[in-house]
């Protein structure tokens, strides 16, 4: 993942009553150490709960910019691609500066210094300590990313050349409160609503919301809800296909393994790719089932690791009986009476209910 541009700016803050100050840095030369740090950061970032979204205004139909200018419209025109302009009501300063950087009107150092200056207000209001604002523009395959993270330091220990124990400062990659990764390629194509991923620390909700506002990010997709919908669609598909227990387990493992692998890499679940993995003999079967049933899923879904970890499918067959349900239903709509060896189903599927009623008539 070659680093194209990088800068680090130090934000100092000592206690809640101390104002944050900025010491601007210069462009950093690419190095093996920086590449290793970016890889370690990505690993930690992908493991964190995240929200996904897009800048305030999505690129859509080409705006009539001249008419807006003549009418005195104060909306700023934000280009997302070299030849595309759209009118964006009240975009964030960050998004506007990023646009200028991509246009070549700002160099990377000036762009990130401006971002760091604006971030001081957030740090003053939300944090008691500062850190290094690390900004990286890198390429991974054919995709370009912008990574922003306020990295805090912690005291650690090491050995010097003489073998003596010494205290050293270490970057704390496990504590990421303000961190975002922007897929610049998706942003400029204008075909996605989930090209911004930012850490969503449930213990610091206000800080997360303030950071999202600073980015100018609007939530485009709820990763947890989308992942749950995908798992529901998969459960329905398994039931629809009337798969045996072994096949059901195998396909469930395939789904979970693929989704977890994508989450680890920080990449979305792609429905057509998943469909091919679920059934190699009928690679479009699962994809077509989702589309025909209209679950409302996008072609790409950001995986939510916590939701995936909770998913497991219980299946079993006996003479004339086949039972299959998702583990998260146990204790809710399905109860297990261990003493009497009974399953109590509280919410009977409507189709099954209708069949039973018709049988009794």
TrEMBL record:
Protein name: Nucleoid-associated protein YejK
Record's keyword annotation contains Cytoplasm: yes
Superkingdom of the organism of origin: Bacteria
Record's subcellular location: Cytoplasm, Nucleoid
Sequence similarity: Belongs to the YejK family.
Main location: cytoplasm
Pfam families: NA37
Organism of derivation: Salinicola endophyticus
Keywords of this entry: Cytoplasm
